[in-house]
Here is the input.
Amino acid sequence: MFRSVAYLFTISVFSLLPLSGCESSRSERDSLFTEAIAPVTDGDRIEASKQRLEHFILHSYSRRLFPSFAVGVFDRRGFLYTYYINADANKSYSTGSVTKLLTATLFQMQLERKRLQPHEAIDRHFPEFQELRWNNEPVTLQNLITHTGGFPDLRFYKKPDFRKMESIDLKVPMPIYPPGRHYRYSNHGYIMLGHILEKTCGDSIENCMKREIFDPLGMTESKGPKTGAGGFVTTLHDLMLFGRLYLNGGTVDGKRLLSKASIEQMVHPGFHIPKSDHNYFTGRGWRVKTDEKGVVTMFHIGGANYTSAWLQLFPRYGVGICYLGNPPEYSDPLMNYLSGVQYLLGDVAGAYANSPQPVYAWKADPTKPELSAQFPGVYIDPQTSETLVVYTEQRAETQHIMVRGSWAYEVFPETHHVFNGGRDFLTHQFVVDPATGKVVALANGFGYYEKQATGENNVSKAD
Here is the structure.
């Protein structure tokens, strides 16, 4: 699961970063590839934003959070800005889970060539994968690519039931959610997808990436990956080349590698989201934020000890940002720093695009009363029989959503149907049936809890 680190960013520079969502007088949705109008550049704004960013990076470097760091801003035509600490354009870095963007790109290429179909069962490629079905419901390729295969996130879930997949020499945790209902980050899902891509392409995933992506884009300093989930090693220069592929609608030097339709498919959610103007979800590889006009931003992060990587696009303005680093420890202070870099780099990109508001400006919609009224109830995990009770508490004029299992805790809105709270402050998604519009389940990092008809929504703290 991707967890935003923005909430950690409490340094004084935060006051420079307005986060309110932008208003729109247009009801139609923009194309993802609307050609950005060439901005009238404001040199003072550009210089001021660069100075804030560089001061922030230098201050953090003095705290020894990282031995080297590289940041970049680019647009559809080329590279706009780079800045390095103990690095240069050719220094290589591990990217961790940013690898998944390459895997998703290669996957989309196979769809275009009709070698794969998104909704085909994964056990069509490896019959052994039938063991991974949920109540005989198959996991599909679409489930793997959107992290909706039902597999637990093993960073937090500590009771997995592993099954050894001999055909790929991998122990895979059994699903704890039905496929296609809930997003939960899964490295295992992308590793399996990598094996399917190798079988489809007839070569190692490393060679497939080189032939299909690195060579056409001129990413001469990139290597790997070893699996579909990680192992991509690259430079700032090459990472920006990859980002520009998407800003340019799938073309490079006049040659098309991906169709615009393919990229549009990649920025749609992997499960049903209740109707809302502002949404935040995972598509095929990309994490995506949208508003009533379309895609606001699309991005991915990679983070671990000795790895920090980020690639983010703002298609509406035709600009993108990225960073690469090698921190010895992926700690809370480092995440705090990286969150600041994301915002400040966004400000540099916005200055080059001369955007009227921050390019990252986005705000979740509040939950509609007709939806929140359905949240209270008794929820039971059919696999473990564990029970959660959801109820509301009135404090002053505000209603707070509470969850009680072995202990009671409050959950806080991330979007209109996803809330954060409890152990490890993980997401809690209220699952809505697309046919009826009714809340049918609650999914968190530890299970899938089906809503019980008994008692309906009349649940109190004492129940």
Residues 332-353 form the longest helix (22 residues). The radius of gyration is 22 Å.
